[in-house]
Amino acid sequence: MGRALDAAELLEAMTEGFRQLAKGAWKIPLRLTIEMPAHEGAALFMPSYCESLEAAGMKLVTVMNGNPAKNLPLIHSKYLYVSAGTGEILSLMDAEFLTALRTAVVSALVTDVLGKSGARTMAVFGTGVQAWSHVEVFTKVFAIGEVLVFGQTPELSEQFAERVERQLRKPSRRSILNELKRAEIICTCTTNATPLFELRDLSTNVHINAIGAYRPHTREIASDVMAQAI
Fold first, then answer.
1. Where do the structural domains in the chain lie, given as residue ranges?
2. pLDDT tens digit sequence for 133-150
3. What is the mean pLDDT of the segment spanning 99-123?
4. What secondary structure, in 3-state letters, does the chain show?
């Protein structure tokens, strides 16, 4: 599926999708989250319907924080696509890949709209699927010249940076917080419960795509950063 999708075409399609959303063409209820504390996880259900496409679907995601210790993925996800006319199941897709790609393309769209498409240096927090998809999409649709990596451990950061250089042919390296001011774009792709950085760590006109935290008790962005956000 990845070989059939082009990042620039997806960016154009996502732009049109948001236009249709603004016109009220989509029905998207609030996400339903079922906590599973006994297993350090949660299940998330996200349905949607578009009348003009005569299509409906639902994404099911499980986030199990204990999985990495078991050598299992943190996230499992599937997307069920159905005909709104007959109710037939048309497709069952790998939503992990789709979600990662979709999220990165939305971040790229926002980055472009807010005037940071000419940025040369990006920083990414995290070394998982979302972090990779953001770096992959951003290096394809923008003129990114360097990728600064902030992972949970030096080893994970170095492995990620090596992968960026090997597969995307972009200079990349493990970074430390006092280098963050060099970044013109920051993508935070973690499930951190505490902020990743403070306002003093950032350059004046940096653009931040914060996509990781999704629960009330998790946060990637500090209060002083939020207070200065546009």
1. 2-97, 109-227
2. 999 999 999 999 999 999
3. 93
4. CHHHCCHHHHHHHHHHHHHHHHCCCEECCCCEEEEEHHHCEEEEEEEEEECCCCEEEEEEEEEECCCHHHCCCCEEEEEEEEECCCCCEEEEEEHHHHHHHHHHHHHHHHHHHCCCCCCCEEEEECCCHHHHHHHHHHHHHCCCCEEEEECCCHHHHHHHHHHHHHHHCCCEEECCHHHHHHCCEEEECCCCCCCCECHHHCCCCCEEEECCCCCCCCCCECHHHHHCCC
Yes or no: domain 2-97 corresponds to CATH 3.20.20.300 = no
Is 3's pLDDT higher than 80?
Answer: no
Instruction: Write the CATH number of the domain with boundaries 109-227.
Output: 3.40.50.720
Q: 76-86 pLDDT, tens per residue?
A: 999 999 998 89
Strands 55-64 and 41-50 come out as: antiparallel
